[in-house]
Each structure stands twice: as C-alpha cells, then as structure tokens.
Write a structure and sequence with these properties.
By secondary structure, the chain is mainly α. Helices cover 74% and strands 0% of the residues.
C-alpha cells in the first residue's frame, strides 16, 4: 500500500468514526489499566511489585471515577 493510501485510510477514521456510542464507557477500562501500568512502571524501583501496585492503582482510579460520577449525579439531581 502506498503512503497516500495509508493516509487516506487514517483520514477515513476521522471523517467516518466507528459507531461506539453504545459502549464507549467500557473503553475506559483499558485506558485506566494502561495509565496505571505505565505510571507504576516509571515510579517503582522494584518491578517485582508492579502487577499488584498497578492493580491497586487501577482500582483506586476506578473507585474515584465512580465516586466523582455519583457526586456529579447527586448535584444535578438536587439542582433540578
């Protein structure tokens, strides 16, 4: 494939994106997993602790996101 063909295919993803509106929220799980693994890989001195530390951070991020969503929902419900 020529470079122009690759650019055309890549541009097509921006002009006609994939229909993800029904399950876009599930895409947060691999994003949070990637962020927690990379962050802990950079910060830890001993990488033998990486899996559990990354999992612990993953759970912390998810719980905070759920708490923030519930708080925002509560504020909106009380305001209306």
């Amino acid at each position: 494939m020529t470079p122009a063909g690759v650019v055309t295919l890549a541009a097509g993803l921006f002009t006609a994106p994939l229909p993800l509106e029904h399950y876009w929220l599930w895409l947060l799980l691999p994003l949070v997993a990637g962020v927690s693994i990379v962050y802990k890989a950079i910060k830890l001195d001993d990488l033998t602790k990486l899996p559990w530390q990354a999992f612990y951070l993953f759970v912390q991020i998810l719980l905070f996101m759920l708490l923030a969503a519930a708080l925002i929902w509560l504020i909106v419900e009380l305001a209306s």
